[in-house]
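can u do me a favor
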C-alpha cells in the first residue's frame, strides 16, 4: 500500500527504528555533517540549505513536532557542549553567528525525520522516495526475499509453535469428548478463538496476508499470538470438561460457543489480547505491508527490538534453525512429549 510518510507517525517511526535502514541510508545518501560524540550531526543552517527551506519553516516544524524530533535526535547545545561542538565544526557555523549561545543540531536520524515531515520541499520529497527504496532493499535482503514467514525468524517461534500444537491436540480432544456435532465443529470453534483474539476468522486472515488455500495460517503467526491461542485452547478444553461433566452429557454448540466467547471478556486475558492485537497489527503492516482493518486502532510503531528480532544477526529462517543440531534436538524432545 502507498506510504505517505508526511501523514503517518508510525510509518515514519518504523523506518527510524530500523537501524539497518539507517545504516544503508547514511551510506548511500551521503548528506555530510560533523561527527560529534559518536553521531553525525547537522546544524539548523545546514538542514535549511539541504532542504531549501527558510528559517521560519524549520522553526514551524520544530514547534509542531517537538517531541517526535527530539525523540529522534534533535537537541540543543549550550555551554561546554556547544564549545566542544564549535571546536569540531570548523567552518560550518559561519552562518550561525559568532556569539551563538544556544545551537540546535540534528542527528542523521533527526534529519531523516524532518525530511519525512516536510511538505514544502522538493529535496525532502526526493529523500523520502530514496529512503522508501532503501527500506524495500533492506527488507528483501535481510528476510531472504520474502516476508510471508518472517514470524518464523524469531528465535521464540519454534518453541511457541510446538507448545501450541500440543495444546491444539488437547483442545480438539475436548471438542470430541464434550461437545455435540460433526467434524465441522473444529473449524467453527477455532474461528471463534481467532475472532476473540484478533477479530478475524481464518478466511479473513488468509485474505489479508494473501496466503494460499493450503497455507497453514498458524505457521505465519507470531510467537505471542501462538502463546495466547494455546492459553485459550488449554483453558477452554478444561472448562468444556468441567461443564460437560456437570451437565452429565455433551454440550450443545450454543453452550460451547457461549463458554468460548466468555474468555474474551475475562480480565485475565485483557492485557494479553491487547498485546497480541497490537503486535499482529503493527508488525504485519510494517513487515508484510498487510493491513488488518479490524485491528487498525491497535497499530503502533514497531520498536527497535523487533527489527533485531526479525531482521537482526540472531534471526534465522526456520530451515536454518532446524539445521542446527542443538535446536533440532530440542525440537524433537518437545514433539515427543
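np, heres the sequence
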Amino acid at each position: 500500500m502507498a506510504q505517505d510518510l508526511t501523514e503517518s507517525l508510525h510509518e515514519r517511526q518504523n523506518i527510524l527504528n530500523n537501524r539497518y535502514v539507517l545504516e544503508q541510508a547514511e551510506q548511500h545518501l551521503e548528506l555530510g555533517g560533523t561527527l560529534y560524540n559518536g553521531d553525525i550531526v547537522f546544524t539548523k543552517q545546514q538542514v535549511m540549505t539541504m532542504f531549501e527551506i527558510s528559517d521560519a519553516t524549520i522553526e514551524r516544524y520544530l514547534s509542531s513536532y517537538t517531541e517526535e524530533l527530539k525523540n529522534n535526535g534533535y537537541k540543543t547545545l549550550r555551554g561546554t557542549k556547544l564549545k566542544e561542538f564549535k571546536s569540531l565544526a570548523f567552518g560550518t557555523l559561519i552562518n550561525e553567528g559568532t556569539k551563538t549561545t544556544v545551537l540546535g543540531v540534528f542527528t542523521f536520524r533527526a534529519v531523516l525525520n524532518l525530511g519525512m515531515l516536510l511538505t514544502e520541499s522538493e529535496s525532502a520529497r526526493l529523500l523520502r522516495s530514496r529512503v522508501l527504496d532503501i527500506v524495500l532493499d533492506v527488507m528483501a535482503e535481510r528476510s531472504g526475499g520474502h516476508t510471508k514467514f518472517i514470524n518464523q525468524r524469531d528465535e521464540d517461534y519454534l518453541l511457541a509453535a510446538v507448545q501450541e500444537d500440543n495444546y491444539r491436540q488437547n483442545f480438539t480432544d475436548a471438542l470430541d469428548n464434550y461437545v455435540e456435532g460433526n467434524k465441522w465443529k473444529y473449524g467453527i470453534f477455532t474461528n471463534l478463538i481467532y475472532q476473540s483474539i484478533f477479530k478475524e476468522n481464518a478466511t479473513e486472515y488468509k485474505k489479508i496476508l494473501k496466503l494460499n488455500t493450503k497455507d497453514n495460517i498458524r505457521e505465519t503467526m507470531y510467537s505471542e499470538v501462538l502463546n495466547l491461542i494455546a492459553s485459550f485452547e488449554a483453558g477452554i478444553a478444561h472448562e468444556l470438561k468441567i461443564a460437560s461433566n456437570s451437565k452429565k452429557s455433551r454440550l450443545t454448540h450454543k453452550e460451547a460457543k457461549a463458554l468460548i466467547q466468555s474468555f474474551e471478556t475475562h480480565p485475565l486475558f485483557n492485557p494479553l489480547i491487547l498485546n497480541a492485537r497490537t503486535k499482529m497489527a503493527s508488525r504485519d503492516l510494517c513487515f508484510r505491508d498487510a493491513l488488518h482493518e479490524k485491528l487498525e486502532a491497535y497499530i503502533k510503531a514497531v520498536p527497535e527490538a523487533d527489527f533485531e528480532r526479525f531482521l537482526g544477526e540472531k534471526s534465522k529462517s526456520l530451515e536454518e534453525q532446524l539445521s542446527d543440531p542443538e535446536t533440532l534436538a530440542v525440537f524433537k524432545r518437545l514433539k515427543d512429549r
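The radius of gyration is 26 Å. hope that helps!!
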